[in-house]
Amino acid sequence: MIASLGFLWSYSLILSAIAAPMPNFSPNSLDVRSTDTCADPSLATTFMQVFNRDGITHALGPRAYTISGTTNEGATQWEFQGDIFVAWSTEQEFTVPLYRYDLSNVLEDFQYSTATSIPGWIQRLVIGYVYETQVCGSVPLLGAYNQANTDHYYTTVFNEHSELIAISGWTDAGIAGYVLPLGTGKSNGAFFVT
Question: This protein's superkingdom (predicted)?
């Protein structure tokens, strides 16, 4: 009799599990998490890196502002080194500021970070908005530092970063923040979605 009661209890438990409504795992229900925790990539813009050959300085900025600024100021010493990542030029939900730091008013070296302060460095401005952790398809913005030339260089390409720090004089400067890879967001008025 005890064995048959155990069987009936197990059988009723199985039936109640089968009769329970199934959770909705449709593709639309899975999309909700990303829109609730990611900034809108269609509002993002391309950031580029430039190099000042006179001051041996690399700088980052949104492409449109960087091109406009160097052109309007007649800053012929800056060389465009190309697009390196996608981020937001205005604050978005789920993003944090990417700060530009320098050592003095001479502007001989720039360092970028989501940290609100870096000992020995002066926080100058916010160049854009990025993720603080690796989420939503973001990649690390990797820094390298050349102490002899007091220059920081940034890339999202891991192999490029590894090769650079393997060269004498360059050291790992850590992760400045997490950005979207090229081909994501808005670029030159066209939208790219990965």
Answer: Eukaryota
